Amino acid sequence: MSGEEEENAAELKIGDDFLKAKCLMNCEVALILEHKYEQLQQMSDDPMNQVSQVFEKSLQYVKRFSRYKNPDAVRQVREILSRYQLAEFELCVLGNLCPETVEEAIAMVPSIKVGLFRHLVWPFYLRLLLIRSVYSDNEINSGDKQIN
């Protein structure tokens, strides 16, 4: 991005580095940090000296704001959203915020193409809402649920 152009997320003018970067949804970060947390607990002999406060707070944050808790649901959300011509940034915002209407989605991510989103992506996006309801926090992680 040239120095003269102003960055604008609504138009996906976020800089070449960010456009090429792999973004993670909160639920994906939560899975990664939970795995690392388990590893750190197993490796440490002193339970008081296991993880930093920053690590703990980061884990708490992403767990609190993750819409999907089940690893299978997380995988399906990324898989469904990756089928469309969404930028990584758009994919993650939609996956994190889970808008319930097309208008809400467009308001949250103005850079998405309205026509494309309304007619092509939205019907499949509704599957994400279904995934969220199927894989509720009270569900047992059985791994046998698949939404296509």
UniProtKB/TrEMBL annotation:
Keyword Nucleus appears in the UniProt entry: yes
GO biological-process terms attached to the record: DNA-templated transcription initiation
InterPro entries found in the cross-reference section: HRDC-like_sf (IPR010997), RNA_pol_Rpb4/RPC9_core (IPR006590), Rpb4-like (IPR045222), Rpb4/RPC9 (IPR005574), Rpb4/RPC9_sf (IPR038324)
Limits of the RNA polymerase Rpb4/RPC9 core domain: 16-125
Gene Ontology CC annotations of this record: DNA-directed RNA polymerase complex; nucleus
PANTHER family, per database record: DNA-DIRECTED RNA POLYMERASE II
Name by which UniProt lists this protein: DNA-directed RNA polymerase II subunit 4 isoform X2
Species name: Populus alba x Populus x berolinensis
